[in-house]
């Protein structure tokens, strides 16, 4: 299987790249600066907004691990809109998006999102709201998308346990009552989804235990 990872030099993108490489996939890193990739993979040096259908048609799955810099959070919307337009020309290629937790619901009726709650950190709101809006528009598309939301506490330094629990559109917790996932275990869940194809045109979420 041929996998391309947009933003493969970022923290999560690089962990997904490494995890996919251990499964025997043919992995390509799509980055703006090829010097940031030290892994033994094929590298395409190109900005996300310059990508075309011709660039991506050879892959079975493309992972979108793009992360907008501070002050440019709207790029979460425009970047995913650009990719959605490309994938309308690529009906046989899957797009899997590294999503955010803030658009997950916190009530059974699915009316209140995490970002709508009173104690949601204001400093994260620009990123959260733009990612949530991008997700809403993705849901309206006809492409083969999957959106994976992490737990509320997304821990880069967390251990790779190899264990996780899946949810759907609601924020979920582990046995300790925590909404937690390490970057490493998130990468495992995402690559498992590449293999299992269990959430076509669906969003799901993942929670893990602290090691």
Automatic annotation (TrEMBL):
- Domain NAD(P)-binding: start-end pairs: 7-194
List, alphabetically, the InterPro entries matched.
NAD(P)-bd_dom, NAD(P)-bd_dom_sf, Polyketide_Oxido-like
List the GO molecular function terms.
Answer: oxidoreductase activity, acting on the CH-NH group of donors, NAD or NADP as acceptor
Q: Which residues form a coiled coil?
A: none
Pfam families from the entry?
NAD_binding_10
Q: What is this protein called?
A: NAD(P)-binding domain-containing protein
